[in-house]
Amino acid sequence: MNQTKASMGYVTSKEPEISLGSEITVPCHLSPEVCAIAMQIKWFKETVCVCIYKNGCVIKGRSYKDRASLATCVLERGNVSLNLSNFSVSDVGDYYCQVISRDTTKQITVGVDGLKFINAAWSKYYQICNLHSKFYTHNKHLV
């Protein structure tokens, strides 16, 4: 299969419930399922670099050094989703995933949107908030 013909999309079974401090996955998959191990994958939140995968290595942006990851074990199945730990309200917004294969670049915007509090409780030491969020997407073909 020609890797440059792959498109990108996102898959989520339902709108996720997210708690502050939890781990979230910003979903992104190549379609049809194409191995992404030899590709370059770049994730940005707006203009800030979250992480870059290149030549088998994941380089994390300064602001996300301890919180961002890619599951490199699933790149083989075209899963280029971004994992963020310690979710905070500032993580809401647009995330851009660029996948570069040879001389072709494809980009998708996956947004964490529609944030609202559905349950909030205070503890003496920390706040527990369950948040209801949804993902949206826009594809863009570059080059």
Automatic annotation (TrEMBL):
It comes from the Eukaryota. The keyword Repressor does not apply. One of its GO terms (biological process) is T cell receptor signaling pathway. InterPro entries: Ig-like_dom (IPR007110), Ig-like_dom_sf (IPR036179), Ig-like_fold (IPR013783), Ig_sub (IPR003599), Ig_V-set (IPR013106), IgSF_BTN/MOG (IPR050504). GO terms for cellular component: external side of plasma membrane. It is found in: Membrane. SUPFAM superfamilies: Immunoglobulin. GO terms for molecular function: signaling receptor binding. Residues 21-109 form the Ig-like domain. It holds the Pfam family V-set. Keywords: Immunoglobulin domain, Membrane. This is Ig-like domain-containing protein. It comes from Cyprinus carpio (Common carp).
